[in-house]
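COURSE: Structural Biology Practicum
ASSIGNMENT: Worksheet 4, Part C
STUDENT ID: 0417
INSTRUCTIONS: Below are two proteins. For each, the amino acid sequence is given first, followed by its structure token string. Answer the questions at the end about the second protein only.

PROTEIN I
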Amino acid sequence: MDIQERMPLYKALHKHIQLNSTSFHVPGHKNGLLFQGQSNILAADITEISGMDDLYHPTGIIMEAQQLLTSLYRSDQSLFLVGGSTVGNLSMIYGTCTEGDTVLVQRNCHKSIIHGLILAKVVPVFMEPEYDYETGIAKGVAVNTVKEAVTLHPHAKAIILTYPNYYGMVDPIQEVIQFAHSVDLPVLVDEAHGAHFIGKGPFPHSSFELGADVVVQSAHKTLPTLTMGAFLHIREGLVDAHTIREALAILQTSSPSYLIMASLDYARSYLGTFSDEDYVFWQQYRQEIVSCLHSIQAIECIDRSNDDPLKITIRMSSGENGQTLQRYLEGKGIFPEFSDPRYVLLIFPLFKVKHEQQATGYLKVLKEALQNLPYDFTKRLKEEMKNYRDFGQSKVHIPEIPLYQVKQTKKKWLSLSSAVGHVSGGMIIPYPPGIPLLMPGEVIQQHHIQYLHEISKNNIHVQGDGWDLDQYILVLA
């Protein structure tokens, strides 16, 4: 038997359910007894009773399950996370950096990275990513930008990257990793959308496989895992696994969900037993998807051979807003992952050969919905705005006030016309491209205001806690 077929934690939990035991332990639903219908699913929601091991001091089934995970990803240590990639990102920063450290950070990062920087009380140096000029979507950081950041901040202690981006776009991250290691910088990667990246078949290589030191993956995003299930992989040398585990014990719940952990064990086995035949099947299936989408006149399909094949980005040929297409699909019973003013993102299941019938059904439903897409959409996006990063600025920025100090400072709201010269009290993130225009602690300049006026005129969606829908900016008082 292939060792990756083993599921020690999943099997032990299943065996425990079969005992039909009487619960005198937490949680309070008592194996689902107190829920209407007495759900058998809830019988698996248990705690650290005899035979079920302990996530933070594993000696039995959890230890074996994590060893199998370590073997699959060829790490020094791989760990289960029950708090999603969020707790992994917080822990890799808190467990690697110390207060006052300078840290190089890819600017288009997840908010959990920002929260980790605040928690660790480090000084971030933000690096601008590159753009895909066909789509306007932000990608990864170029190695030359990293070199500039290291030249300007030679005492930096770590570099934090995001790979792939939300749309599944991958970049030559190996160049950045190799350069960082040449100057003894550990590389920490938020790889939330790459749990299925193990360098086989049509799928890209994981940043861990390419040399990164700590990698966090949201297994629940692309693998058959319950929500909040994630992996953390560690390569020892430039980082200390012990301090990262200590950070996890501090930041993650002391009552981990066995349902989530068992699903992580199952997902690892599911991926680990993906055969060559399964990879061939999926590659052919993906080609069918792309051919189908290209055949529909009302749809444009963004197809890049090097990106994550699980993700497909589409837009309407008419240029209609992506949210319009999302609402249309939802009316047909198809719920996309995400939409922005241009695009709709679809994430397909990681089917195996045995799922051929379900795979065919998925494609049929999508094709029928899109073939009936009405052609009377006449709105078009206005003329593309100048990229706000084309103002001749350096691609490396350091906030005037550290993030953790911003958190502790009183704030107030100002109108756009009054905000120049003040310090931003929050994040302002235009979508697209999804890169913060302003980070907490950065001084608001005239070109920021100019760009925000353009955003308003073009009805571009803005995220972040530093922006009010009435066009006010949060600043330090």
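PROTEIN II
(use this one for the questions)
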Amino acid sequence: MKALFVILNETEELNAILEDFVKVGVRGATIIDSQGMGAALTMGDVPIFGGLMRVMHDNNRPYNKVIFTVIEDEAVLEAAVGVVDTQLGDLSKPGVGLMFSVPVDNVWGWTNPDYTE
């Protein structure tokens, strides 16, 4: 079981990603409004590295979204990663976003709809 995190700077792609997540078998996700360190520092008039400043001003989006979901099936995880790759393209480009997964050992309060006693 893995948790998939997507830090989405291109927030206009949020709905398309969520709709495609459903199509590939992602059963639910949580979306949180967030702000990166570069945006927080530029809003406080604190000098930071020029590259971060350019990214923030070029995108003119100081806020982003974090999507996270817990996925049991490795094939669904790979499909979800493919959805993000398709919608966002090259994540290595500045200002696009970040995606990562982490192992999950235990989950409390989550009902698996496929499980029957």
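ANSWER KEY EXCERPT:
Q1: The first strand starts at residue 2 and ends at 8.
Q2: Residues 2-103 form a domain with the Alpha-Beta Plaits fold (CATH 3.30.70.120).
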